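Hi R.,

Here's the input for the tryptophan complex you asked about:
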Amino acid sequence: MAAPRILSGIKPTGRPHLGNYFGMMRPGIEWQDRGDAFYFIADYHAFTTVHQPELLREYSRGVALDFLACGLDPARAVLFRQSDVPEVTELAWLLTCLTPMPMLENCHAYKDHQSKGKVPSHGLFAYPVLMAADILLYDSNIVPVGRDQKQHVEVTRDLAEKANRMFGEIFVVPTPSIVQTTATVIGLDGQKMSKSYGNTIDIFEEEKALRKKVMGIVTDSAAVEDSKDPATSSIVALYRLFAPESDVALMEDQFRAGGIGYGEFKKRLFVAIWETFAPFRQKRAELAADPAILDGILANGAERARAVALPVIERVRRATGLR
Ligand code: AMP
Ligand code: TRP
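And here is the predicted structure with tryptophan in place:
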């Protein structure tokens, strides 16, 4: 059997945070040895919200650098910019014409937007269709994502199956891959970690900023001597992502026993986060020092991505009567 095609994307709407790392980047890096992996910087998706050209460019390069520093290996995986293969927007249009409006009205990004009383752009509304195009343009088998993206991969599956019934087997039907233990990383306030909630810890946070954020994690008002509940604590939930099981068990016991204040536990969490990413910092600094390295990686990625995408779009054009 041929190696599975693995594909995922990340939006350059800011600097990647721990939710991105554990939900998508680390699983993606693990997949790069188990198949034919494609990862892209979803700049068309980011354009739903980022309308400052310099900022969009800066975020796009920053996300790529973070991903490479964390272990994405351009020799084993293809890293490319979504907009370097503009045929994806052509496929998105074709899929749009097969997408029932209620399917999108049901999608959570749009519903969240509406529930806040904001007027969504048509781009935000159609966002899951562009995501389906991303996945289907590369004949992807497996899509590693955090839990919040599961619904979008299901939309993709529905659209692929519908198109296959209408035009013959033109699309590979993808499967989401979600790592259950890190499917939803929580943020500083106990909600899902998300740029839009302002509760993130970035992967490459400066030392002082990281300390400040960790020390600012929201807790209840239990005193030092009080017994504390590890099950509802954001400190423990985040610590679990970094520390070995025995260290987590010790922290849980100490929570229950009382006698140690939250400040002490937060310091322990800070050290665990800082030490985990320390080796990647060096690598990031090296990559950032020479912009030509990233330019080369992205140019090569674009070429490899196009080599897969162009035959697929041609197949779709022919099957749909657009050629
Ligand atoms: P985004 O920043 O929305 O482009 O997300 C990129 C990837 O990170 C997607 O696969 C998301 O599911 C994942 N992700 C984002 N936030 C979290 C979170 N708090 N927990 C787990 N995964 C997340
Ligand atoms: N929509 C995804 C997110 O917000 C990013 C993304 C765009 C993506 N296209 C994709 C993820 C294709 C997986 C596959 O996180």
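One thing worth noting: The chain is about 55% helix and 5% strand.

Cheers,
M.
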